Description:
Elements: H1 11-22, H2 28-34, H3 39-50, H4 72-83, E1 88-92, E2 98-102, H5 107-119
Antiparallel strand pairs: 1-2
Amino acid sequence: MGHGRRRTWTDAEKIRIVEESYRGHRQGSVVARRHGISRALLTQWRRAWHKGLLDGGRPVFAPVEIGPDLSDRQREASAVRAADADARIEITLANGRRLAVPVDIEGGALTRLVQVLERA
């Protein structure tokens, strides 16, 4: 067998293999064997893919749509609603987890929270 042989994989190939490993039930080991890689290596690629570290990987943030300009009256009404203590922002992370936070959360706290939840 090819002892000492080391293959380099492009990010595109890694992404294709990772996505293939998620199709169906318990496909990880089967896919790893099919491509001649260890299950541990596939697991590393999966983690990198979830964190968005592979080129073309899942986006960390989703696109934002900007609506039409609001009139001054609509802007004031929006500001009043945003000041409501129950107002929340819902964020879907790259790993599929959903996070609901108050609209007035401090930016640094939100950043730390997202980092922790993406690693878990």
